[in-house]
User: Fold this.
Amino acid sequence: MPANRVAYRTCPLCEATCGLEIHLDDDEITLIRGDKEDVFSRGFLCPKGTALKGLEADPDRLRKPQVRRGDTWHSVSWDDAFAEVERGLQAVIDTYGRDAIGVYMGNPSAHNLAGMVYNRVLNRGIGTANVFSASTVDQMPKHVSAGLMFGTAISIPLADVDRTDYLLILGANPFVSNGSLLTAPDMPGRLRALRARGGRFVVVDPRRTKTAEEADEHLAIRPGTDAHFLFGIVNTLINEGLVSLGLAEGLVEGFDEVVRLAAHFPPETVQNICGIEADTIRRVARDLAGVERAAVYGRIGTCTQEFGTISSWLVDVVNTLSGNLDREGGAMFARPAIGGPTAEDTGTGRGFRIGRRESRVRGLPEALGELPVATMVDEMETPGDGQIRALVCIAGNPVLSTPDSGRLDRALAELDFMVALDIYRNETTRHANVILPAPRVLAKSHYDLALYNLAIRTVANYSPPIVELGPDELSEWETMCRLTAVVTGQGSSQAAGEVVDDFVLSTLVQSAVKREGGIVEGRDADELTEALSMNGRRGPERVLDFMLRTGPYGDGFDAPGHEGGLSLAVLEENPHGVDLGPMEPRLPGVLRTPSGKIELAPTELIADTEDRLLPSLERPLGGLVLVGRRDLRSNNSWMHNVEVLVKGKPRCTLHVHPDDASRLGLVDGLLARVRSAAGELEAPVEVTDAIRPGVVSLPHGWGHVAEDIVMATASRYAGVNSNALTDGSVVDALSGNAILNGIPVDVEALVPLDA
Assistant:
């Protein structure tokens, strides 16, 4: 590769998928800025993207496999590391069975091409029922509600921000998060453009976030009451004759059930619960129904609460009843270039199911093949068949990111064996016996398989590796394939890993040629496989090429009528990406419900509303509650070791309203003790009127205080772990999602440490 060059790739550090222009001298990054020619981000870039240089050069980032023997760590070869993994995991399988191995997948997996391709085959190879991920501390309620309404977990209607006239945002802060379950780079610019063309956006949040500051209106809701507020809107739409189904006309089942339940939630009833006046609720409902194009967007604040799945469901009930579902400028469905469960317009399917099995200890329901991570520690602590005695942890730090963090920390220390795929020795991986590191970001290929399912424009952008693997680095796909070979009894050699890779591709090709109506139906599978392996391709690139070529915009391997369609070669010729246009109306073809209809009132959601939400109308109010918050420079716990992202004003502070501070004797900058049913911590107070009275706030993912982690920068800016206050014994009933917002707490002032 030339010494001085410019390369382009998609940023892998959050959901925005911004394009990067990277200047290099040999393999050293000299400059990163936004790619002005990127078809999606058009030069926009947040501070995380420019900090990629710091992440690549971080001296604490692991570069060789690590094996722990006793209390000491040793750098070893890849062959020796896999041999250690084989000994450890096979011993657990032979003694206790496959369910004795737990799997945890962290947030970075969704931003990782190799992870998205091979995580599933690894999990199936392990053959355990004990699979967990960050999804159940983040987004599972939305997957469940969308699945029950529309047929698949990724059938999530997306706010068409670029064309809407009115956007209602609940529990989201896209000026900071850049969008979540809504892939749209430069959300600040898009929202400002909405206002510039005469539109409006309204933010519903207990905090006056950066997004709320720039909104036309901020409604400071009481945490955990989004479902009550949304039912108040539904009640208004129905009682004022504002229901108009638009493109969903004739496609809706269950309207009468929604009418029946909404009768219990008139604005006058819910105003005292949610803290938003009845007249305001009615006005919002009228605005949603009255403007030409409107959309409701709810995100993490609506998911990580007591009624997370009900709230997520009601977002799309409102979108449907106001006539804004599948309408340009409303809430629409993506059609990603790589195809998938909803790419073809079949209009019916098997539908979506939850609770196909339950967790061993607490009987919590499975969703998407996963169990709620809130019960992972129960499965480790409780003896019996299926007790977790070993853990495979993939790019995650559940000690900081999941409930009951103290219990989990202690339980990990008691495991028989643990292997982690990670770039750091952090609060979780310090308990591992083996850590298998990922290579540098620039040495990996990238394509956002997951996130383009949620993009507000159909784009395709592939990033090839721009530096060579170092002598001690192994590509992630090889690591995952060799790990799969280990757990399936094929050994740990490179050749065994390649057999797994070939199996993954063969399975996809065989399925595609048998799929009735598919673009390669009836084709010769061997011929297609040979075409995919030209130019020596292996690993996720072969899989990606196949998914592109058989997707809705693909060339179908030169199928008639598809000449000039997408392939990996086309993307390689277009380093700034390929823009395939805005979302288009897709009803009824996008539906995958057995009825071929939108299930407006799924049985499970009706029952949960009757069992839990209706009784909450009589619940007494009062007391402080805790909510989380997001910082522009932070993405959970894994970016806290980059100096440029954590330096400056302390961010891990307890936000308290001046009225509460005065009442409790709290002083700005001094410490307070915060207690919940799960635990307690001490944090510095930050008095601010940007939070609703009766609410306090701590950010998520901090607390880097363990002595044996190797994250020097994170340790200097340690902060406190808010999940010491999160009670894993309570979860959202349908999705099993952890409750991270609306947690009852007591707060008291402490004497300053230096007094």
